[in-house]
Amino acid sequence: MFSSFLSKFQPEGVVLKTGNLSADADDVEGYGEFFAEYSGVAFNSGLYRAHTVDGTRRWNSIIVEAFPKFKKRVSCFGYDWLGRQFALDRERRNEEGQPLVLMMEPGTGEALEIPATFLSFHNEELVDYTDAALAEKFFYEWRSSSGKRLGLNECAGYKVPLFLGGKDVISNLEIIDLEVYWVICGQLFSKTKLLPPGTTVKNIAIT
Question: What is the CATH number assigned to the segment(s) 3-192?
Answer without folding.
Answer: 3.40.1580
